[in-house]
């Protein structure tokens, strides 16, 4: 699917429409483009695919909805970056669930530099906020682009630190549309990042941030970066989700240790116990990532092999058997292939049809389950 130039205007419009259609996610989008060649052809096939997954009356996203979205993006000063454009971030494209379309404001070349994600608690301690700010500036000085999510606490501090350096080497990844500021207290910071550095959004312009958007944002933060550094975090937090996503992607995972008496340090200490690299100063991070060869020192989950793309002729006779193996508990696609005895392409075909019909959910680590809807 690699091309040298941007898609035509008609194909770009069709791609946005395809991705905004119901039950189409990054993996199903990639399968559809691989199978049909163009987004327009994929759009025409959606009703039949949904019917094969036991859903009647499927319709793609309305054209006027996409037209309004494009107008809003232009008004915000943003542009679209498609998965096969040469300036799409290379590291991010390695993820199986990489966003097919990004909206961006600012200098996209910052994503082509070595990047490090910095994440941590929203209700962070004053000491951790200062530490994050100092780390952000030092890492920018050391030639790294600092990636974070513009949240309160650690995220905002590391962005501010990186912006304080002349390179302004930071990327803000947000869980809303490119034209929505969140949280409100970071409105000026978000605009500064958009004008002096780089702001990235996956959601359509006009989309307010919702709970389900933040894990999706976190995978982009991890996917852009050679490694993820957790500064301060509770045991159950979005920061640890980002760290685990980085580990699953085969990237470095690092954590700053803290006092066992401080609950906000327990997440970092837990990561270190599980195999994250202990970091004490910015030089540790710079040294670790400057020599990163794709084999992390941290001992986290091995990366999941990319799914095999599918063939339209495969899978029809296996559909019932494969769907019967699924429950609401996530299971890997590889396990479905083993248990069904079907060809990988056949399994992927059935999963695609079930997803378009709204009966399948995809999870991190290449796992799937029946939809909870």
TrEMBL record:
Domain named Smf/DprA SLOG: residues: 80-289
Gene Ontology terms describing biological process: DNA-mediated transformation
Domain DprA winged helix: 313-366
Xref: InterPro entries: DprA, DprA_WH, DrpA_SLOG, WH-like_DNA-bd_sf
One Pfam match: DNA_processg_A
Highest taxon of source: Bacteria
Membership in a protein family: Belongs to the DprA/Smf family.
Protein name as catalogued: DNA processing protein DprA
Organism listed in the record: Aurantiacibacter atlanticus
UniProt lineage: Bacteria, Pseudomonadati, Pseudomonadota, Alphaproteobacteria, Sphingomonadales
């Amino acid at each position: 699917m690699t091309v040298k130039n941007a898609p035509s205007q008609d194909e770009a419009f069709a791609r946005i429409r395809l991705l905004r259609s119901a039950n189409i996610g990054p993996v199903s989008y990639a399968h559809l483009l691989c199978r049909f060649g163009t987004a327009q052809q994929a759009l025409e096939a959606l009703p039949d695919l949904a019917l094969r997954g036991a859903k009647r009356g499927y319709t793609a996203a309305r054209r006027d909805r996409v037209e309004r979205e494009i107008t809003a993006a232009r008004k915000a000063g943003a542009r679209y970056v498609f998965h096969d454009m040469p300036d799409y971030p290379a590291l991010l494209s390695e993820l199986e669930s990489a966003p097919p379309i990004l909206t961006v404001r600012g200098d996209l070349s910052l994503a082509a530099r070595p990047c490090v994600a910095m994440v941590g608690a929203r209700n962070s301690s004053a000491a951790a906020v200062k530490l994050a700010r100092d780390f952000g500036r030092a890492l920018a000085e050391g030639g790294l682009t600092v990636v974070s999510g513009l949240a309160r606490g650690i995220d905002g501090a590391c962005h501010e630190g990186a912006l304080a350096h002349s390179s302004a080497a930071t990327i803000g990844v947000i869980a809303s549309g490119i034209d929505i500021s969140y949280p409100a207290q970071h409105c000026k910071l978000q605009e500064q990042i958009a004008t002096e550095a780089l702001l990235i959004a996956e959601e359509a312009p006009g989309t307010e941030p919702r709970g389900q958007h933040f894990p999706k944002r976190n995978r982009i933060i991890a996917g852009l970066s050679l490694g993820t550094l957790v500064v301060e975090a509770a045991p159950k937090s979005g920061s640890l989700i980002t760290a685990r996503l980085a580990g699953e992607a085969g990237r470095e995972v690092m954590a700053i240790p803290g006092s066992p008496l401080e609950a906000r340090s327990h997440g970092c200490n837990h990561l270190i116990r599980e195999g994250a690299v202990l970091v004490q100063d910015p030089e540790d991070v710079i040294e670790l990532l400057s020599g990163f060869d794709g084999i992390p020192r941290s001992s986290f989950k091995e990366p999941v092999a990319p799914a095999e793309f599918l063939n339209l002729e495969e899978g029809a006779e296996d559909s019932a058997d494969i769907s019967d193996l699924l429950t609401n508990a996530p299971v890997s696609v590889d396990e479905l292939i083993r248990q069904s005895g079907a060809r990988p392409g056949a399994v992927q075909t059935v999963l695609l049809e079930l997803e378009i019909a709204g009966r399948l959910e995809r999870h991190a680590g290449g796992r799937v389950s029946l939809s909870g809807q």
